[in-house]
Every structure is written in C-alpha cells, then in structure tokens.
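Allow me, if you will, to draw on your knowledge of protein folds for a short while. I have a record of one protein: its chain in single-letter code and its fold written as discrete structure tokens. The full record is reproduced below for your convenience:
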Amino acid sequence: MAARAAVGPRIPQRLACRQLLRAPGDQPELGTWNLKKARVRCAPMRLLTRYQLRECLTALVYCFGAFLMLWIAFDLFSELRDLQESRLRGIDIVEHYFFRIPEFLPVAVPVALLLALLYALTNHARHNEITAMRAAGVSLWRVTLPYLALATLAALALFFVNEYVSPKSGVRAEEILTRRVQKTTGGQRHLVKDLKFHNSRPGEDRHWHAGIYNPRTAEMHRVHVLWTLAGGAQRDITAERAVYTNGVWVFHGVRELRRDHAQDPTLTPVAHPVLRLPEFTETPEEIRSEIDISERFRARASFKTRRADLPIGLILDYLRLHPNPRRDVSAWLRTKLHGRIAGPLACVVVVVIAVPFAARSGRRNVFVGVAASIVIFFAYYLLQQLGFAYGEAGGIPPWVGAWLPNILFTAVGLWMMVRVR
C-alpha cells in the first residue's frame, strides 16, 4: 500500500496513466488501482512513448552541449600556439571549430546518449515510474523500444555525417587554418610532389610517377607510366603533362617506347603531340585515396588514439586500385573499414547496456547514473582501443578488432535485460 501511494500522485501527473491502469467502472480518484482488470489502451501508450522521449531528449541536448563546449575549450587551449602561428582572427577560429564539429560527433553522440539515458532512467526508477510501467503490463522490452528507435536514428545520422559531411568539413577546416599563410607559400599547399603509385588490378599492371600532381584539377606534370601488357609487352610513356578530361586521361608532349613481347630486345620509339588513353581506368578519386591512405599509413605511429577516421568510399577506392595490398596495409585498412560501420552502432549498444543497468528497482540518486555512464564509457573506450590496436597489427581478424566492444557490451546488456526482475 505504501508503494502504491508513492506511485499514485506522480504517475497521473507525469505519465498520464490513469486510463492505462484504471479498470472499467472504477472511480477516477487517485489510488483506486485494479491491476487484475486493467487493460492497456493504445493512446496512453503513445503518451508514455512521448514522455520517455521527451525526458531523454532533454537530457541529451544538455549533455551534448556540455561535451561540445568542453571539447572546444580543451582543444583550443592545446592548439592555441598553432592557431597563433596560422595568424587566425577571432572569426576565423569560430569558423574553424564550426567545421570541425563533425569530427567530434563519433565520440560525443554515443557518450551523450549514454549519459542522457542513464540520467533519465535513473530518475524514472527513483520515482518508481519504471515499477508502475511494469505493473501496468509494460514489459522492459517495450520500455526499451523508444530508446532503440532514437538510437537507430542517431546511428543512421552519424553514419551519414561520417561519410558525406565530415570529409568535406575537414577539408574546409584545414583551408581556414591555412588561409592567412597561403600568401607566403604561393597558394601551392594542395599540390602533391613526386607522386608514385601502382595499379595492380588484373590486366592493368601500370606504374605511375608524376613530378607534380594537382588533385583539384586532376592534372599531372612530368609524367611517366610503365604499362606491362599481357604476354610481356610494354609501353613506356613519358609526357610533359596529363589531364583527366571527360573520363579519359589525355597526355600532351608524349614520347613512348614500345616492346611488342617479352623476348623482344628492341624498343620502338613513338612520338605523339596528344595521346588519349581510354584504357587507363585510374580515376582522380582512386588517386586521391592512394595519396590520403599512404600518408595516413606512414604517419599511423604518430596518432595518439586509434579510430576509424577513413571514409568507406575512400577505402573502397584504394582497394579497387590495390585488390591485394600488403598484409600490414590490409589489416590496418580493413580494421578501419569495419570500425567505420561499427562506430555509429555504438548508439544502439549504449541503449542495450543502459536500460537494464538503470531499470533495477529501488530509489537511487540521479548522480549514480552519471557515475555509471563514466565507468561504462571508459570500459568501452579501452576495449575499442585494444581491439583497434590488435586488429590493425594483424594480431586478430580485422572484423573482431573493430566489433569487439559492440559484441561484448551487447552480450552483457542482453544478459542483464533477461535477469532484470
């Protein structure tokens, strides 16, 4: 009776559950609950869902805003010297951090969602609202559904931002960072010097070397391409300039040496003012993937943390250009590929782990949820870094390294869900 009195005054005011728990013929006064004859109606259930989402979203907005301000403050203090050396003004710094926000989202969104869920659910349990829901016949799985729907939408949005917004915003942030110092470098920072790559696709054995490559215009200068054809025939092409136009590589000022077959000791010189080669299937996107991934792989030891920071499209372009990369490159690259998919799904994982953790009956302070979110986050982060480290090094399969924290935390969450009474 004491528990019923504690539940009664709060439930009608916050959950609008009078109709949910009241049996036919009962009086509308508070405390007249007949659980045996109670019937569940659709409209109150929709009110319950809206209530759950409102409480969670309110906490989510505050948590995300707080994380965002903390991240900007810490990053600003650590990068202040670089910003000063780049001669940025106040408006430039604001614009720079605005375009860097997508870089922060893969970490901030799951953590903010975890903290918001534990805060909201601990608050519900503190006022016996979860007890009232379950006493009305609402299962814990049904209580979880609104949060799972919210987490799924967050995961899809995060995946979209990672793949289509973050790469462009990162380039824009870098342009802002260098806009005040480009005059001293002649505005040529985007040019790639001494570009070398190999197209190892079957039947397309071509070694490229360009003295200067402009990724913005897909134009090369001082180009050399060694093309080995079937049967050992070779075409050794040297050109002053090459441009990718209308899906075709066009070479200018060409000097070519041809060998008809492997046993042919003679090289036949051929000159072309302009040479179009539609057989060359290398695209500017694939060349960009070669440049970016090669630079990241060489500098991988300098990164303090391991994360899936390469877009899926960039990785697939590289794998099309190199169907069989070296073992160390393959392990590193495929771990990031799996991590790119597993990362956004952390939003769903935090729901599976947070709901049973916070839904246990009993009055608890809301700061218990805050403390629990911190512990869960650090445990997840530790497993993620361990998985990435071993996966990129080839110690475990790449998919295991990327999915390890999601698999373990989902299993623990489902086990806790089953055991909640």
